[in-house]
Design goal:
- This protein has 238 residues and is an alpha/beta fold.
- 32% of the residues lie in helices and 19% in strands.
- The chain has a 6-stranded parallel β-sheet with strand order 3-2-1-7-8-9, sandwiched between helices.
- Strand 2, helix 7 and strand 3 form a beta-alpha-beta unit.
- Bound molecules: 2'-O-acetyl adenosine-5-diphosphoribose.
- The site of 2'-O-acetyl adenosine-5-diphosphoribose has 25 residues, from helix 1.
Length: 238
């Protein structure tokens, strides 16, 4: 299927919450997902932060704490394996660190990282958090309150131009475990070359229209991704 290659393909993988679901991290929009239990406006907007920073810190503290209780699943490991064979860039909407912990590299965190915090006043003052808990009164070197290093609704997604360029240059694009509801990330697939191979892995029906060379595996990432990765490696070592 898809384009014929004369050389090793460049691969870009866009991941979302679904790839971490089998590790035990809730997705956002599935039944019982995070946005059923928490109001986006309260915990994922600059307005929510201004209204009640303690509530916001606590929401991300709990999610950061959960990272110590979960481990990468076969889908994360499959991508690390893919990187041993091809040039692969991972663009993730996830704020967890499971790609890294599976041994993957070249990871762009479009929506930020749970294990980082930053000054609420100077966005470039970013720090690794050693501990899961960040409290009101924890400050940066300039004395500003620290906030989660997360892209909230209504904020810029600084890496989007670079991500779009990576997708444009890719021969094969994987889209794994994202409902493609949140822009601008959801629009990335439309930057792909028309004849690039697109591989969608998500157990649910997806609304993707006018995308040429798209194949949808309606399976869990932990089932489909290791198999599809092995098939790709076999195809190019044949
Ligand atoms: P969603 O919760 O919107 O979508 C998760 C997707 O994963 C759905 O399409 C599910 O069908 C699929 N899924 C569930 N289990 C799966 C499995 N085992 N294997 C593969 N797929 C599975 O999450 P995202 O699309 O990642 O942003 O959400 C995008 C952004 O919305 C997030 O980054 C977050 C959220 O608001 C911020 O917080 C800034």
């Amino acid at each position: 299927m898809g384009k014929n290659f004369t050389k090793s393909p460049r691969i870009v993988v866009l991941t979302g919450a679904g790839i971490s679901a089998e590790s035990g991290i809730s997705t956002f929009r599935d039944q019982g997902g995070l946005w059923e239990k928490h109001d986006i406006m309260d915990v994922a907007t600059p307005e929510g932060w201004r209204r009640n920073p303690s509530l916001v810190l606590e929401f991300y503290n709990q999610r950061r704490k959960q990272l110590d209780e979960v481990i990468p699943n076969p889908a994360h490991f499959a991508l690390a394996k893919l990187q041993k064979h091809f040039q692969v860039d991972i663009i993730t909407q996830n704020v967890d660190d499971l790609h890294e912990r599976a041994g993957a590299t070249n990871i762009m965190h479009l929506h930020g990282e749970l294990r980082k915090v930053r000054s609420e006043k100077i966005p470039s003052l970013i720090y690794d958090t050693k501990h899961w808990e960040v409290k009101l009164g924890d400050t940066c070197e300039r004395g500003h309150q620290l906030r989660p290093h997360i892209v909230w609704f209504g904020e810029d997604v600084p890496f989007i131009p670079l991500a779009a360029q990576m997708v444009e240059n890719a021969d094969i694009i994987f889209v794994v475990g994202t409902s493609l509801n949140v822009y601008p990330a959801a629009g990335l697939l439309y930057h792909a070359q028309y004849n690039a191979r697109k591989i969608l892995i998500d157990p649910n029906e997806m609304q993707v229209e006018n995308i040429f060379q798209l194949r949808h595996f309606k399976e869990k990432a932990g089932d489909a991704l290791p198999r599809v990765v092995d098939e790709l490696i076999a195809e190019f070592s044949a």
